[in-house]
Amino acid sequence: MAKDTPEAPVATGQSTTPGTNLPATRRLLWLLGPALVAGVAYLDPGNVAANMSAGAQYGYLLVWVVLSGNLMAWLVQYLSAKLGVVTGKSLPEVLRERFGSRAGRIAYWLQAEAVAMATDVAEVIGGAVALYLLFDLPLLAGGLITGVISMGLLLVQSRRGPWVFERIVIGLLLVIAVGFCAGVFIAPPEAAGLASGLVPRFADTNSVLLAVSILGATIMPHAIYAHSSLARDRFGSKPLLRSIPRLLKATRWDVSIAMLIAGSVNVAMLLLAAVNLAGVDGTESLEGAHAALEVALGPVVATLFAVGLLASGLASTAVGAYAGAEIMAGLLHRRISLLARRLITLAPALALLASGVEPTFALIISQVALSFGIPFALIPLVNLTARKAVMGAHANRWFTTGAGILVSVLLVSLNVLLIVLTVRG
Fold this sequence. Notes:
The chain is mainly α. The protein is 77% helix and 0% strand. The chain is built from 19 helices and no strands.
């Protein structure tokens, strides 16, 4: 990977950056992790619904969309982590310092908080559906259980620190990977079909809508906020100048590993549906996809799929709740009790489950709501990481900023298109 930042001046004195006194192998492992946690956002139930629908309806056609989204996600997540590493602050903290008025901070916080709540809708509903598939639990009870477990994960993060939290989330990430990839090894895709899916093209208007949905479910606003906070938590608020280039190099590896895993699993979801669900009626919902997988590949693969969906819901709702807390702390410099915060953010998801709304439809609507938050997170991120006043010698080079602007324009345009197409039905 090309290095996009020049070497910073060497500071004098002993480095106080945590982990520097560990043996080389352990030090390398210690530097990895924040991106894997943030990368869970790319494997949330919204991604599952979009990828499974794309494979079931169009076979291999949209594989190239998943891969393109993953490449864009690499740049976005690297810039977010880079901001946290260099400044020792999260994106919300940096924005709070640059807002000219309290009213502006509050307005920005309100939209970011709405995004966090919309994220919770997708995650909690996904967990509830998984518990229904596995244990036949009512959806509302499943939503409550998902919320309680996510609260427990947040307690671990607040009391045991980021390292323990990261290990738990990474463990869930491995469960997600096994759950969604197992079926692909049992019923592998055709090489010719997979190769055809790498050619950019569409079949009709609905395939465009699905492609936009895949990209809309890929780049999540809360993942942008969370990754800068995770990098700050891991590396400290005052990294020494001489340690920053090493941390940035490790961050590039961290993001690359995380996006390789997330991209592979997302492609596996689409291929699983393309091979086994194409042309099968009723697969437009997660429950229908699960039932069709059981018929096609047997109960073991179907159960693994449901377990992967449950792990996806639990891990992503914990990361989403973490992001919401960091958004409030960063922008308003305030924190509320964990219980109060969790009850507030859980309320919309539980209300939807109690109302009897079709879960997969609610997932899709939540992804549309998230589309509104993309420009508010992405555009400031690219702008701030390009400024020497913020990043010093580690400000983006011109081609990195250019790529960030291109990705921003493309994603914002696609998310606007998603909103328009959804409204038009």
